[in-house]
Amino acid sequence: MARAAVKAKQQAQKKAAQPAKAGRSGRRRHAAGGNPNQQLFFMRLRRKAKFAYVILAVLFGVTFAFLGVGSGTNGGLDQLFSGLNFFSSGGTSVSKAQKEIKDHPNSGKGYRDLATAYEGKGDTVNAISALQQYTVQKPKDAAAWSELGGLQLTEAQNYLAAYQAANGAAQLAAPSTAFLPTGKLGQGIGTNQIEQAASAQANASVQDLQQRTQLAYTGAVSSYQKTATLQPNNSNAWFQLAQTAQTAGDVTTAVKGYKRYLKLNPNSTSATQIRQLIKQLSPAPAG
């Protein structure tokens, strides 16, 4: 028995001296079945994510207030992305208005829409033409007459600027003419044919622009007269008529418009200046 006890003790010592199994080597496993270092990493990541969420929330709040998102005024991000909306309607197009005219030629709506479409494109000439057609069908639309007068006044101002530029160019078309001698000597030297041709062309352009300017101003005065007639108690209509007529050189209509304005608006802050202007424009009494 003593020998058996010694043998058992030796086996126990030998078993204790053997290395551990491969399945139990390496890092100590967590009691819950996972890696504690990995769990610690994800805990840190969640804490950093919360901090990032706070920053994003603050930035969104500042953006919301600064850009006016949700304010209902088409501001903020709405303005930033408004140009990217390919499905938004930009109003009646020229083609749609022309189709409306073709389908309903006597309704007036087509010409009204056509004028608006041309105005949106900056085409003043065609907008005037469309509004003139509209006022033929709707002659009592005071707002349309006023709009037509404004377009004609804009056209007149554009023609006036072109006329002034052409007049200056005409004076420079024949620069040597001013230095030619007069009398028989000048006749003997003759004129520069190239300069004369350029001067003649420039002068023709000046005359054409002068006529266009006057016609546009006359049209604007006529349209504002329609507006004032349809709205006789509208002081602004009479004042606009007076100013346009004065610019066009129609002194009689200008004085009439200013007097009517003062009658409707006697307490105007510009009453004193307008009375002085009436005196300046009124013809002097005979004798």
CATH topology of the domain at 140-281: Serine Threonine Protein Phosphatase 5, Tetratricopeptide repeat
Order of helices and strands: HHHHHHHHHHHH
Let me know the CATH homologous superfamily of the domain at 140-281.
Tetratricopeptide repeat domain
User: Would you report the number of β strands?
Assistant: 0
Low-confidence stretches: 20-33, 48-89
Overall structural class, as computed from helix and strand content, comes to mainly alpha
CATH architecture of the domain at 140-281: Alpha Horseshoe
Number of helical segments with 4 or more residues: 12
Query: Tell me, what's the shape?
Result: elongated
If you had to describe this structure to a student in words, what would you say it looks like?
- By secondary structure, the chain is mostly helical.
- Among the domains are: 92-139, no CATH class; 140-281, Tetratricopeptide repeat domain (Serine Threonine Protein Phosphatase 5, Tetratricopeptide repeat), CATH 1.25.40.10.
- It has helices at 2-17, 36-67, 77-81, 94-103, 109-120, 124-137, 142-173, 183-189, 193-230, 235-248, 251-264, 271-281.
- Helix 4 runs antiparallel to helix 5, helix 7 (142-173) runs antiparallel to helix 9 (193-230) and helix 11 runs antiparallel to helix 12.
- The longest helix is centred in the last third of the chain and has 38 residues, at 193-230.
- The N and C termini lie far apart (167 Å).
- Mean pLDDT is 75; it is low at 20-33 and 48-89.
